[in-house]
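Example 3.2
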Amino acid sequence: MMDTLILVIYPRASYTRIAVYDNRKQMFLTNIRHPQDLIGKFKHVIEQLDIRKKSILEELVKAGINLNQIKAIVGRGGLYKPMDGGVYKVNNAMIRDTRKPMGEHESNLGGILAYELAKEAMKDTIALIVDPACVDEMSEISKISGLPEIARKSMMHTLNQRTIARRFAREMGKNYEDINVIVAHFGNGISVGAHKKGRIIDVNNGLIGDGPMSTERSGSIPAGDLVELCFSGEYSKEEILSKLKGKGGVFAYLGIKDVHEIEQQINQGDQHTALIFSAIGYQSAKEIGALSTVLLGEIDGILLTGELAHSNYLMNVITSHIKHLGLVRIYPGEDEMESLAMYGYMVLDGDIKAKEYK
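Structure, written as tokens:
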């Protein structure tokens, strides 16, 4: 019997992952693919809202799930203005900022999809987001960039970072609020955060222009040379931005970003591919090493997670450079769907209170 149903929505670039939980147990999970020729025609991510909403409703009907039976809808949080971590109700203020986000990213669709679907469900169905990428718990000194016009920004894979940190704490028989860990999330972008007693006090901007390069993002670029490139007259602003996010990193060097293809070339003896892919690990290790100084060397664990953590080659490059810093644990993949659902149940059960976004 369906008692307390929760719908979880996690938009990705080319698909939307949805799951339905019944009393904390997953009863339905699917990835709804969105062909590039369909969503690629939209200039802004938010313009994909109607298409993705329609496809979710269709999948729920096919699965025999009645939207009116769902008590809470939890979406992936987007790039709103900086906020503390936690669970938030999706309200009008959040929807307003979703339409003018801090950056273009598919995560911006999570909260508004939850909000729109909740309006079509029961009148008391709630829409929530949890630990969005824009969570800002950085220390004051960590935001100083070297130019007063530019502050360092917190932009990271907050939910998975925090989920993995809490999981590690449980494994160690401790509370997350009592440990210090460095968590590195490896996806299309890479974010490396210093977690000190339950707060992420320093992290690179994993969205654009900061930290390690990834398969498609440039990471930190020598500033003077980037300025010269910007004013060379050869590139528009949009072209420069695409070099930093989408066409940077491994893709800029090799023209590919699929990890399986990259590793296949390495296994076939391609030394140039090995060098470029290894640079992700080298730069990530440098970032981890830098954050070890932020925590004054008091580190309970270094945790490597995300989709690229499935790559033994990349993980070996990184661990070879950081193993002297302390315990290293690898958690491949992401566990966000269950985490979002569990936070939803905690709100419904009154274990935690959803915050109000302003």
